[in-house]
Amino acid sequence: MKTIILSLCLIHAWTSRAQVTTYPIGSTVNNFITLDTEGNFHELYAYTAAGKTVMLDFFFYDCVPCQDYAPDFSELYSTYGCNQGGIVCFHVNSGVDSEAQADQFVIDFGGEGQHPPVITPFNGGLLVDQFGVGAFPTLCVIAPDNTMWNNDVWPISLASMEFNFPEGAVIKPMSCSVDVAETATDGPLTFNIINSADLPLVLLDLPASTPATLHVADQMGRCIVDRDLGTLPVGSSSYALNDIPAHGTYIVRLITSGGLYVQRFFR
């Protein structure tokens, strides 16, 4: 469920869809320069010119569904480098809160660890107007070519956000504490998905033995597979995904001692 703000009256209702009127999927998003609550300026076209994907989370403090998925947005932010890597994430306040409330939102609901920057209520209100947002939460994905890749990611989870990474975008998991050039997926481990006629196969080639866990989620973020692979051997190995329904798109996450590896595949 989402919360709708109608005009300036703060009349709350519930709906299953967000209202984004300005930028249909595939349209070009106009540039903007905005300010976060730490006093830092951010320019959309500066990020996209650097090949980055931009995710905007439109929220306000008392929005319960916004609160519910805030930890997932924080996990996305920290998993992919805290805006140092191929994706940049921002909480965008709707303009109805004070700046203190906007900051308190991530403290109260963002979970442990690091949180995305929060755009100030004044600047957030300008972006709400620019994007034509009338329901909250609304999560938008802007591709590196400045097009609106998805103007309403819903329902929102880590898996559904990963599912909505633009095709061709370079977005790799990386530590927030390392240099931009270092990523968790840089290394000799090979991880591929083969969509065979019978069953999808996970193909691995490891230079060293490692414990591993395999997660598969559908495009709605629902967990399909959660499998402890034990300690994987050195060399090549394959694993059949025999629990995957046909006619869908899935995110596969391989977690090893060396890092996190993510692949998307269609079946």
List keywords for this structure.
five-stranded mixed β-sheet, about 270 residues, Immunoglobulin-like, elongated, 5 helices, Glutaredoxin, 17 strands, about 20% helix, four-stranded antiparallel β-sheet
Count of separate DSSP helical elements: 5
What is the second-level CATH architecture of the largest domain? 3-Layer(aba) Sandwich
What is the CATH topology descriptor of the largest domain?
Answer: Glutaredoxin
Name of the CATH homologous superfamily of the largest domain: Glutaredoxin
Instruction: Quote the beta fraction.
Output: 35-45%
Architecture overview:
The chain has 267 residues and is α+β, with helices and mostly antiparallel strands. The protein folds into two domains: 2-163, Glutaredoxin (3-Layer(aba) Sandwich), CATH 3.40.30.10; 190-266, Immunoglobulin-like (Sandwich). Helix content is 19%, strand content 36%. It contains five helices and 17 strands. The strands form five sheets. The protein has a five-stranded mixed β-sheet, with helices on both faces. Mean pLDDT is 83; it is low at 4-18 and 178-187.
Describe this structure in a few short sentences.
This protein has helices spanning 44-49, 64-79, 99-109, 121-131, 158-163, and strands spanning 2-6, 11-15, 33-35, 41-43, 53-59, 87-93, 118-119, 135-136, 138-142, 148-150, 190-195, 200-206, 210-218, 223-232, 235-240, 249-256, 259-266.
